[in-house]
Batch of 2 targets.
Target 1
Amino acid sequence: MNSKMSIAAAVCAVIFGATAAQAEWKPTKPVEFVVTSGAGGGTDTFARTIQSIIAKNNLMEAPVVVVNKGGGSGAEGYVYGAGNAGNPYKLIFGTNNQYLLPYVAKLGYKPADMVPVASMALDEFLIWVNAEAPYKDIKDFVDAAKKPEGLKMGGSQSKDTDQTLVSIVQNATGAKFTYIPFKSGGEAAVQLAGAHIDANVNNPNENFGQWKAGMVRPLCVFSANRMAAGAKVAGDMSWSDIPTCKEGGLNVENYQMPRTVWLPAGVPDDAVKFFVDVLTKAQQTPEWKSYIERTSQTDRFLTGDEMRSFVKADEEKAVQVFKKEGWAVQ
Amino acid sequence: MRMFHGMVLSRFAMEIATGCVTALAGAIISYGATEFGTGWDDAGPQPGYFPFYIGLLIVLASLGVVAQAFTQHRRTGQVFLTGEQAGRIVAFAGPMVAFVALCVLLGLYVAMTVYLFAVMTIQGRFKIPLAALVSIGTAIAFYVVMEVWFQVPLLKGPVEAMLGIY
Amino acid sequence: MENFSNLMTGFSVALTTYHIAIMGAGVLLGILVGVLPGLGAPNGVSLLLPLTFTMDPISAIILLTSMYWGALFGGSTTSILFNIPGEPSSVATTFDGYPLARKGQATHALTLAFLSAGIGALFGVLVITGLSSWVAKFALKFSSPEYFAVYFLTFASFVGMGSASPFKTVVSMMLGFGFATVGMDTISGSLRLTYEIPDLIKGISFLIAVIGLFGIGELLLTMEEGLRFDGIRARVSPREVLKTIATLPRHWVTLLRSCLIGCWMGITPGGPTAASFMSYGLAKRFSRRGKEFGKGEPAGIVAPEAADHSAGTSAMLPMLALGIPGSATAAVMMGGLMIWGLTPGPMLFIERPDFVWGLIASMYIGNVVAVVLVLATVPLFASILRIPFSIIGPVIVVVCFIGAYTVNSGTFDLWLVLAFGLVGYVFKKLDYPIAPLVLAMVLGDKAEDAFRQSMIMARGSLAVFWSNGLVGTIMTIGVLLLLWPLLAAGISRVSGGFGRTPSIRLN
């Protein structure tokens, strides 16, 4: 596959003349956006938003094709990326699962099989409870969870971001949670609205509708600062009225999930630079701002070394938990 | 396909063979499941619990099939496949397998053109111009619909690269 | 009555020339993606999505949903003509649709499928209209034990009575469960049965299995028998369509039962696939012509089609009201809703009634438009069967492999289709039933997830499946259906055993 592709690239270069090779790298055929989640998932919306921004603002001449490869919690997409080493026409969209998945499952790729392009936003995590639940704040909640029977906490997937956070909270407080994995954050949201579980740690966007309708409410957000102010969501509450967990006395300061973009390892540096440019332009558009606002994410754009050091810190934090819980396979 | 002439595969033999293959599949499933714990802990069944017993059930039921073959199909003279039928199957499946191999090597478009053309001329006895028209036309029609209209990329090979398509 | 006046407002939104034109375009595009290999409703909808970014949300959702209806109808077409179901939910349609088409009654089969589907869809919209507020609350009662009970009920209603050897039924169904297990396990996060083969990480797609088992397997069987499609003269005439319409009232019991099952499964939400299988199973069990099922029995087409479409339409309600997408297509539409700046959830009904009721009204009109358009295409598609087999045979092969490739864009799947083709061929010749394998593959991992989630919630106690009235009732009905053949035998013995003697085989 790889050799075929590089032959193809070489042939293209010959056909289109040496002049193109001299100039900066530019895609000459459709670029594939590989989405490491199913259609409709958070990563899918992320990739398709970028696609629509690129199309609307003519940021790239070559057309974009979106391909969903969400099997195995996204591993399918990364394995595909690793198998396309040196091919600059495969842009891979994901989260922190790119570098965390290989720790908890034996997979056919290594994080180093891809080079980072950009981390475009940070998704927040909150503790949500059913609207009728008796807990007024996070302290009440943690106290209730310290009782011998503990509380039932739902989340998306197993040994993934949600369960990692739950076990961090558990270690920080000594509370006891029974973690129930569902297929998606959306399912966890509905189960909470129906009071089948006691809480979940969904991203803002996954519980937004239920909060607005007064079926669930947030207790606190795992962030150093409160979230950006916006319109009122439920009653007189807006996102910025949610206390941080630290304020509430829960000693877990920061837990966020990056929305990341990668290229297969071995692509020319010019190609990385080209896509960094395109994404930089994309994140300055009003469409991107409205995506960030609508999904209540934190607007933080990282590339190059900044992104590398973020990844390293995030990885270390998670690996500690994996080791402690005995999830690590390597 | 004269090579199968007169040969007969009995239903009894095929029942036994299939039973053995499914039993083997069951064993492989059970074996694969042992990696994850096949018991039942306080949080319910462990990851390997269901696959393990699924595999085991396949093995047991396959043995049942084999036993039933002895009681129901032995010496009944039932035929699974005659030589003539086998010939027809090979005449159809042979080109199909070659088509898949060709897909992997040359991509779907080239492979489908070659496959349709070959089957139409050799087996269908169509005239070469008509066969060429239909096979190339089909490939182009699929290309237009899949790649151009719906932007679903299909497998492509070196020929497309040479022509500078994708 | 409030719903009724809302609906009238909705009609005033939906019944504009522009919107009718959009519906027509959407339905035609949908039929095209439905018929084409490898393109299903989810692809179609996600490909159209970028086009809708600049549209008004109501027009956009009308376009997308119309495409969805079209694709559902188109998917039934390939099930009936080529034995290749385009969507999981149209698998059950192949059981009797394809044999009927092989008998030369392709027009009859297609027309019957489209009409029952249309009736199912309209029934679904009626339920949405009448019960929207009540139904939305009901879906919230569903948690993992209830989901498991629904899947159990589906298995129980489908697998009770059959003529195959019980051992073979077990082998077939358990293989299906085994294939469904391959890949990432939701509950533990571990990769099961992948044997360190990277291609197996994503699991074995149900579509790959179906293309091989049904499409290729059937072709092999056809070839071996020396039968050729060109021996079948599909009668193609508009009069045939009218004649079929006249036979429809005969199936009213099946239709009603199927629509009810469909709505129940769409709302709860067990999904269209479970609905079509359950409906087929029950139709077979309660029909006096039960033995004719699988050989081209018209009721065997009516039942799954009506249930599939009433489930498909009524599943829009949980999506709008709760933000639970009932299917992959609904998930993509939900993504669209968010991109247009709408939030699916209970507040949508209060904040944007024009959108919600405009959509519901468009579902009435859109489905009527779809039935009319799709009936008009029947002669066209039925005439495909007249092309000589040495052309259409290889073209079907190509279609199967294109379809297989597009599932995951991987060449591994092409070989897998060949392997499943061989399995399908051998299994059919040795009288292994294939439907249980497919059903287990579709619902197996969902049922396992639901079971294990329930166990975590209940700390390993099976009593959770009888812990409240709702789950207890569904489980009890399931158990009764499983034991039905035994019960029926007992009843007929008590009542003197006149009439047909039911088979007592439990498999």
Target 2
Amino acid sequence: MISGWGNYPRTGARLSAFCSLAELRTLLAGDTPLIGRGLGRSYGDSALAPTLLSTACWNRLRSFDADSGLLVGEAGVSLDDIIRVFMPRGWFPPVTPGTRFVTLGGALASDVHGKNHHCDGAFSAHVAWCRLMLADGSIVRCSAQENPELFRATVGGMGLTGIILEVALRLRRIESAWIRQHTRRLPDLSSVMQAFEEANDASYSVAWIDCLQQGGSLGRSVLMTGEHAPATAIAGLGQPRAPRALGVPCNLPGWTLNGLSVRAFNALYYRRAPRERTELADIYRFFYPLDAIHHWNRIYGRRGFVQYQLVLPPEQGRAGLPAILEAVAAAGQGCFLAVLKRMGPAGAGYLGFPREGWTLAMDFPARPGTFRLLDRLDRMVLECGGRLYLTKDARMPREVFEAGYPELDKFLAVKREVDPHNRFASLQSQRLGLT
Amino acid sequence: MTASSTDPGHVLILGGTSEIALAIAAALARRGYGLILAGRDADALQREAADLEIRHGVSVTTASFDALEPATHPAFWQSLNPAPAGVVCAVGLLGDHGVARTDFNHARQLLDTNLVGCISVLDQAALAFEQRGEGFIIGISSVAGDRGRASNYYYGAAKAGFTAYLSGLRNHFASNASRVRVITVKPGFVATRMTADHDTPALLTAQPEQTARDILRALDGRRDVIYSRWYWRWIMLIIRLLPEPVFKRTRL
């Protein structure tokens, strides 16, 4: 049995790794639906199918231009790999999600975003080109200029156009491996939204919201902004070591995360956060706090959890976000932390998630009450003209998906052209009619 | 991470696309050794060479080498530039034992690959290192060569021969008072494509990186014959000590 990062849903699947293009072609020749899989960090059912093509062996670096920072890597190369090899040389991924254990192929297929989306856009904005193998075994290179429709269907396309082989990524020059981090406590939602607007020049910004607060302290949060620290600011600090990760050895019993423990944790977290402070944080602490706990997803127990990430347009967000947070707090379904972030304009992908506005991500234990609540939240999101992130999704109804993605038709036109027999299909794509 | 101040030279890796070979290559590259990856599949070698070069910042070249063509080995050795300071022989073919039992061509292929081809190319290395007065030869043999078993005795016979060859070569250089080292490596189960179709016990299965670390430790120290992981020394000791009337009835 295999699952996404949320441990929900689980399904039987055959995991086949390919170590050469010839092996990959042989795997494509079968007839069960296939989908690529990297490090399994998408949460729901987007990397689940009867046959999973693992990129675990397809993880070599192909070339690196030390002048421009252009790195060509195979789909299975992880951001962790890139950081270990290139950070000591003064380069960093231009966009990184909240975990470094994602692959280039997965990052492009999900068109992931990071704390710098409002300045730098999503991952694909820094991809010079990619190559993919289509269902017929042919290999095509695409970019914003070369085969642009295929590129726009592939970035954020959840692996449904073909198997991504290589990605050419422009790394960012950094002077140090440290971030000058500014942390602020904010008492409610309107003050944190205001603070985001004021921090629009910050390279990185994100807020953690205590979802248990209601009424006057609805949206009580801690806002973190950051800048790459210049070499002059880190005298003597040198290269940080990746923290030795603690692990969660097994699924925790379902009662571990109860109202009391969570309330205590959130109170502690908010209390411990400084009212306002600037300090140096190494990149592991700033970007990847959860990577310090291997298998943190197991804290939700055997039944797993679902993540719900939405984005609302800027104006609608002002009214929509409080209503959504109010509904979540009132429902008491065990969501305790939410991540809020200001997003910049949409990228190239037809199915790309980011768009100008506010994005909010929340975890819920996978249980019936959660699904009823999420159905209610779906309607609120649609009323605000928002949409949900496919990479986090395990349960979105088809009409919610279709209403949120106006360029779906363009995606489907490309999909039908390059994959007429639907060789590439995930449980998610079948659920949502992406055929 | 000990990039030494003097250039330690290049190491020739034979069978340069196997996972054990690549793990050793990466470990050597981290020490600043340049690499020559040799094997049959030019595209695969090129892919590995680029990756090692980018990750470790050392020079990595490739060379075409076929263990099954011993006649080409002298010219192959002469063509290597720069001349290697050491060689790792990770050529290996597990083959299909069932096929080998009924088709002698396959049985011969196992012997030719795992024994004859290795001896042929390492003879070239031995001559060159003897002339120079220094160098190292690391031969990846196998625990399968310690005692013939029903499940893989062609492979085992070849590895037993290879182990004996390495032992003799080491004896030659020791009595010769030269500074040429010969290290015999006997891996047990290693999680690679070679063993992917075989159900190996998880507790006794090493990762290629662990085997590479064991080998580098041997290169640093004075050990001549190492098992990887270490516990195989004791497992194989017991297996070798079993009296034949007992051993012949086992299903190991």
